Amino acid sequence: MCSIIGYYGNEMAAPIIVKGLKRMEYRGYDSVGVATESNGQIVLKKGIGKVEEVNSKIQLDVLPGKIGIGHTRWATHGKVTEVNAHPHYSTSGKIAIVHNGIIENFEVLKIELEKEGYIFKSETDSEIIANLLQKNYEVLKDVKNTIIKTVAELKGHYAFVAMFENGQLAAARFHEPLIVGIGKNSYFLSSDVLGFIEQTDNAIYIENGNFVIIDKSKLEILDFNGENVKQEITKVSKEFADAYKGDYAHFTLKEISEQVDTIFKAGESTKDAIKNTANQIKNSKNIYITGSGTSYNAALIAKHILGKYAKIKVDTVISSELQFSSDLIELNSTLIAISQSGESADVLDAVSIAKKVNCKVISIVNSLTSSLARESDIIIGMNCGPEIGVAATKSFTSQIMIIYKITEELAKETFEIKYKEISESISKILENHDQIRHIAKEIKKISDIYVLGRGIHYPIAIESALKLKELTYIHAEGIPGGELKHGPLALMDSNVFVIIINPNDTTYSDTLTSAREIKARGAKIIGISDKKSDIYDYWIEIPKSNEISYPILETIPIQLLSYYAALEKDTDPDYPRNLAKSVTVK
Ligand code: G6P
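Above: inputs. Below: predicted complex with 6-O-phosphono-alpha-D-glucopyranose.
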């Protein structure tokens, strides 16, 4: 959602903070700001837009001082305006804060503080933290007690960093991530290790309900009652520093291309986790799989594959919906939670509901140090490297590969993953940029695209529609082939494009029949298949394969098509409007 960062050290703070914010921009990117402390004064700059844009306009990185805080925003309370951008000063200007999360009781607190003369400039819930800190600090005159009193008064989910005019930094964590980076003579406070990975790989993952004070180069970690807490330093993987586009025009294109390799690596970073998962599944009466967005679409693939090949029945639940059907989760079951970031609030919420009824939690996650990983009994790492593009690409195929590995473990006789063949086929599809780019030009003016698939190809149709929505802002919808005549056929005319996911397997002829019915109504057809047909206006060829490999192979051209259509529409494929990579609010 938003990213927060704090720096305390011997170097100029602002350039370091701006660098860290650029790396964390995936968390939110509608506005940005930096505040630093210099000679007992807090100075602040902020603006609307991405870090690079704002920095080139107002030079966020030339603020004075060696202590500072910064923020990238994804608006929740209040429009995208400069005033609503963080950091926020307290009324006196002696404290500034950056915040990630939601303060649920901000309206009540605001009324009280306004009565006492505190002034609010923004529409945000966050500004309340600055003024509440000021109020408590003026009475208690001590940062530690001020934080204890303030967090006791706040309700919601938050991580914030506060900078005091005397150069002290404090940060608190309540259900939003907060990580301390420990450098040589410096400290970082950040939402993600990416905020400081270039400077240090020593990190402390602050536990929920704890806070940190940094003062005169001394770091103190305390719980919300003020008791000192000992927390271990973890070495974070330097691999996550590898968040550069290299020669690619966008992260999204780089990440699509990396799938040639990432499909081999899925699950490899966590020894025995696949075996342990298979055992847990075998011994559990009920299995539920949950996720949000793309990760939920991977759960739908899991349901199909585990059912068909391992004869294991699983229920899938969209994470944000679990709270409304929590009674369905039976005692002592297993919940498999799929999440690239491991920080999606909806997924974490689903996990906490399942834990209340004593479920074992298995996570399929890319960030092994994420909140989800730390809540899990078994962790399977996607191991696909940092995914920066907001729309998930390589993490989706890694999730599918992990599901396949689990299935292979459970059904050795009937299920075989042909890694090399899949990888070579991905390479072949990736050679097809020119044709896909040409089709992207054709779809750019269209307002509706439908994607049709049957069986295991239906989840791919939904995922394809999601990719098109996220990257191109074109309305797109996945349709199960057989349902066409039960409604969607009414929408077909010469103004729409329909993508037919039609590999040459048991779904082929039924899906071709659907394509014929659509074509008869004048819609344009893009066929994704290993078999040519005259029905297709555009045929995107995928190599001949089998039911297990097809879902991965079908995904690649749709990712490329969405990417190129985004370029044609002049939208930013890495940072689609209104979205965030890691949605840490409910
Ligand atoms: C956000 C992203 C989606 C992603 C979803 C789940 O909504 O924009 O692309 O699929 O979160 O993310 P997760 O990290 O839990 O897999």
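Residues 292-295, 339-341, 344, 347, 390-392, 579, 581-583 surround 6-O-phosphono-alpha-D-glucopyranose (CB under 6 Å).
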